[in-house]
Write a structure and sequence with these properties.
The longest helix has 33 residues. The radius of gyration is 18 Å and the shape is globular. It contains 6 helices and no strands. It has one domain. The protein is mostly helical.
Length: 201
């Protein structure tokens, strides 16, 4: 199986995920006292959409290791979303741990993605920085929750750090867009056997 190239990922899908992360962060920043049910619903909806936008753009592209990592991000996000929707009696602490688990898993996948792209992009550290920031978010959330910090402080931390993480994803998406534009248009379809219809007769 091929490793994949800079054209393997849809930059607009990545940008949409960055925007969704920022919108989620703004809720925690400007509405820190919303009810627990609203927090759970927002997080479940956010991770569900994040997962969908990770998987859908890969459906019509040739399978590579880079795409597998993208799909895994989607699967993890949708699984966390379903857990948030289905777990009854979810407490504030449990929600924080769920957010932390999502951030750590997504971060690990993004760091792995960065190693696959180590020779593909000029600024090789960008995808790895995305992953490191996500993992740090998860680790610090666990530390803050274990320390018994006030929920307002936790909300502020989630908002600020998640917003910065979202910005880093947007920066990488814009950088990827420039690289893909410089590389030229991608072939109409990369699935095996999807070339000239006459060849498939």
């Amino acid at each position: 199986m091929e490793k994949g190239t800079i054209t393997s990922i849809n930059w607009s899908s990545l940008a949409l995920r960055g925007l969704m992360v920022n919108l989620f962060a703004l809720v925690f920043l400007f509405y820190p006292v919303v009810s627990l049910k609203i927090r759970i619903l927002l997080f479940a909806l956010f991770t569900l959409l994040f997962g969908v936008f990770s998987i859908v753009p890969t459906l019509r592209v040739r399978i590579t290791w880079i795409l597998i990592l993208e799909v895994l991000q989607g699967v993890v996000s949708i699984a966390i979303s379903l857990a948030a929707f289905s777990l009854s009696g979810l407490t504030n602490a449990a929600l924080i741990y769920l957010i932390a688990a999502w951030a750590i898993l997504i971060g690990a996948l993004k760091i792995t993605l960065g190693f696959f792209w180590s020779n593909e992009i000029p600024h090789q550290g960008l995808p790895k920085i995305n992953g490191i920031m996500a993992m740090l978010l998860g680790v610090f959330l666990i530390v803050i929750e274990l320390s018994g910090a006030d929920m307002l402080l936790v909300s502020a931390y989630i908002g600020v750090y998640t917003f910065i993480f979202g910005l880093s994803v947007l920066v990488f998406a814009m950088h990827l867009r420039e690289l893909q534009a410089a590389a030229g248009p991608r072939p109409p379809s990369s699935r095996p056997g999807a070339g000239d219809p006459c060849k498939n007769r």
